[in-house]
Amino acid sequence: MSLFLITFLSLYGGMHAYAFVRLRGAFLSNHTAATIVLAAWMILMVAAPILVRLAESAGLERSALFLAWPGYTWMGVLFIFASTLLACDALRLVAWLMNRLRGTATPWFMNAAVTCSVALVIALIAGVYAFYDARRIRTDHVMVTTAKLSPSAGRIRIAQISDVHIGLLFRESRLNGILAAIRAARPDILVSTGDLVDGRLSREDIISHQNRLADMLASIEAPGGKFAVTGNHEFYAGLNQALAFTRTAGFTVLRNQTATLANGIAISGVDDPAGLRMGVPAPPLSEQALLKSVPQDRFCLLLKHRPDVPATSDGLFDLQLSGHVHKGQIFPFNLLVRLQYPIPCGTTATPGNSLIHVSRGSGTWGPPLRLLAPPEVTVIDIIPKGLQNL
């Protein structure tokens, strides 16, 4: 936790310092009072995420909400602003170097005030759009043809939700949009590939078996069953509390376990490795051993929060459903995410001839914004070979 706080304060504080210096230089060099107000705001916003957690821990939910909405919205807008400003400053540097070589003057539109103004306008417009777009659930369709299912099984429809992050800023109104998309798809099976709950979900919301949020999820009908796996936030929220919430919502949680269905599908689910880092004992079966235990004539659906495919697992499953990356959630953060998780969002064939679908996620984490990474509910139709053209 100490390492996390040091890293967070260094990166987030550095982003604020950069924005402060540029804003002050562009607009406030002769306005002492406004500079003090801006500095105070920046300091408060750096501390806001930590203050939100402290308020929640103390049971002060109203205070936490009062800080969370401006604090996390600002976090998203600041990231867009700092990213745009950095790009503008890179262009300014190139323009300055070129003009030095040519012996010409730098154009007026490349000065500090103009580029800062442009970055600020872009950040505000993009922030409003991203706030709106985070509430527009898309339905992405995937069709998988397999010879492992009997034609008599017919089409099997699976709806995937991932990274919903039910918590302080994600409540009934936003959950309703996800549930409407699921109901419209009329799935046979519903799966959640981790981070159904958030690390900021209050204890009362998790443990109450009459919880309105769990009841809303439980109302979804899926004749073939509802299955879930843990994500890293299930462990951050408190594993026992998160599992209680997920099960109350009607899901069977697969923790390195396989559920064999009568229609010929075997659904395997693995725990997120965050549990091991937090001292939670590992399940008895490894991912490879779990997949090897599935009969080869069964269509193996693997639920795994993180979109990675070890060489030891590749080819042992037919389709892996994952999430975790949110497609970066706010552009251009997706460029950094791809460095750690190179498998892109969408459906990809693996070297071992398996398929993996990586969801952009259905909710938001941190900032309630999504820029060029719209939320999704994925609808997967598994079609027995020979029926795909019918």
Description:
This protein has 390 residues and is an alpha/beta fold. It has 2 domains: 2-133, no CATH class; 139-384, Purple Acid Phosphatase, chain A, domain 2 (4-Layer Sandwich), CATH 3.60.21. 45% of the residues lie in helices and 16% in strands. The strands form 2 sheets. It has a 6-stranded mixed β-sheet, covered by helices on one side. The protein has a 6-stranded mixed β-sheet with strand order 6-7-8-9-11-10, with no helix packed on it. Helix 1 packs across helix 3 (61-102), helix 2 (32-57) packs across helix 3 (61-102) and helix 5 (172-185) packs parallel to helix 7. The longest helix is centred in the first third of the chain and has 42 residues, at 61-102. It is globular, with a radius of gyration of 24 Å.
Short key terms for the protein model shown above:
12 strands; 2 domains; alpha/beta; six-stranded mixed beta sheet; 390 residues; 45% helix; globular; Purple Acid Phosphatase, chain A, domain 2
